[in-house]
Amino acid sequence: MRILFTVGQRYLPQGTGGIEVNTDALAKALRCRSIEVAVITGIRPYGLRYLLNALARKAMQRAVVADRFGGYRVYRGWDTVIGLSEVLEDFRPDVVITQRDDRFALAQRARQHRVDVYCYLHSATPADACAPCPDGLPFLANSHFTAAWIGRHHGIHADVIPPLIQPSAYQVQSTRRHVLFICPRASKGVNIVLELAASRREVTFDLVDSYDPHYTPADIRARARALPNVRWHKVSPSIRHVLGTARLLLAPSQCEETWGRVVSEAQCSGIPALASRVGGLSEAVGDGGILIDDYTNVDAWKETFAQVWGDATRLERLADAALTHSRRPCFQPDAVVDSFLQAIGAATPATEALRRRPQLTR
After folding, report:
1. If you average pLDDT over residues 27-37, what whole number do you get?
2. 80 shares its domain with 189
3. Is the pLDDT of residue 362 over 70?
4. Extended strands (E) in 196-251
5. CA-to-CA distance for 209 and 185, rounded, in angstroms?
6. What is the overall mean pLDDT for the chain?
7. Burial status of residue 206 (CB atoms within 10 A of its CB: 0-12, 13-18, 19 or more)
8. Dihedral of CA 86/87/92/94: which sign?
9. pLDDT for the residue 306
10. 82 and 50 fall within a common domain
11. What's the number of domains the chain is made of?
12. Based on the domain organization, do 196 and 144 belong to the same domain?
């Protein structure tokens, strides 16, 4: 079987957001099942990778050209809708999984080539709701929240395929001394984090830059530099180095997150989250953290943080709950792959066995 994923305008290593990381993890897990995988993506106009890609496209007179990032083919180019026809001819996939930017246009193009298409939705924004959806397009969703959103806005059932988290990539023995926050953007709640850090100078806050540091506002960097208890970390392929000192993860999102991958990654090491009760973030947190209802109110964050940080016994209980939550059978990598293959109709011994498993729980 051959599966092609689309991921929008950037992919690893240029973009290290949730969709990119999840697609890479799923691609590698599928390859372990002897399934051929490829990705088609846009490319951002900077760096050596872009220069080499542009030269190759010009020399070969193609819209996209492939490299072998991650051990599988990654087709990159300036226009993935035009480039898709080239990829379908070259890779000849049995199934196309469209995600993020231009997902519906890419789905229409793949259908013209008589290829099965599924839309794997990781977002739930007004723009997503307004986008014209091709008739009869089957959906996959990264959470129950996203699946319900698809039902409301498109009137379509969606199978839930949660993010694939490889525990070994995130398991550490943390010294449990610092607060951790990843992706310092306004929509992720960076202003609340900086207010917290300013009010708790005795606590060290580790901030990890966003997946595209070019878009981190200069004023955010300046405010962080002005606080002696804030340590700024560049984005990197692994977050193990910051997990190794984390006692608590902050996820004060101010937008409707459809999951919260950083929460799931931290829970693999028993690091609980203090998070907004919004969107699908509560599914990611489960019992392994605390959810704040009044999540736009910085005073509510300060009060709850003070209660939790000063209570070692409570934090220990939350750490145990976070680890337990990360070990749910239906969220283990093999189970996620089985659910994915069953959802796209791939009949394998594992998917047949899956029919006898309990249904995915929140």
Report:
1. 98
2. no
3. no
4. 205-208, 230-233, 246-251
5. 9
6. 92
7. buried
8. negative
9. 97
10. yes
11. 2
12. no
Q: pLDDT tens digit string along 38-79?
A: 999 999 898 889 999 999 999 999 999 999 988 999 999 989
Nearest residue to 103 (alpha-carbon basis) of 135, 74, 72, 132? 132
Model confidence at 311, pLDDT cuts 50, 70, 90, reads very high
Q: Are residues 21 and 137 in the same domain?
A: yes
The tens digit of pLDDT for each residue in 147-189 reads 999 999 989 999 999 999 999 999 999 999 999 999 999 999 9
**Contact partners, residue 283, CB within 8 Å, separation at least 6:** 143, 144, 145, 259, 260, 362
Contacts 24+ apart (CB under 8 A), 284-288: 284/143, 284/257, 284/259, 284/260, 285/251, 285/260, 285/325, 286/321, 286/325, 286/362, 287/321, 287/322, 287/324, 287/325, 288/263, 288/318, 288/321, 288/322, 288/323, 288/324, 288/325, 288/326
Residue 100, pLDDT score: 86
List the domain range (segments joined by +) for residue 25.
2-164+331-354
Q: Which of 7, 6, 14 is nearest to 211 (CA)?
A: 14
More confident residue, 88 or 357: 88
The residue among 8, 31, 35 whose CA lies nearest residue 19 is 8
Residue 342 clears pLDDT 60, i.e. is over it: yes
The residue ranges of DSSP E strands in the chain, in sequence order, are 2-6, 36-41, 64-67, 73-77, 95-98, 116-121, 139-141, 158-160, 178-182, 205-208, 230-233, 246-251, 273-276, 289-292
How far is C-alpha 47 from the chain's CA centre? 23
Concatenating the DSSP letter of every residue in 275-333 gives EE--TTHHHHHTTSEEEESSTT-HHHHHHHHHHHHT-HHHHHHHHHHHHHHHT-GGGSH
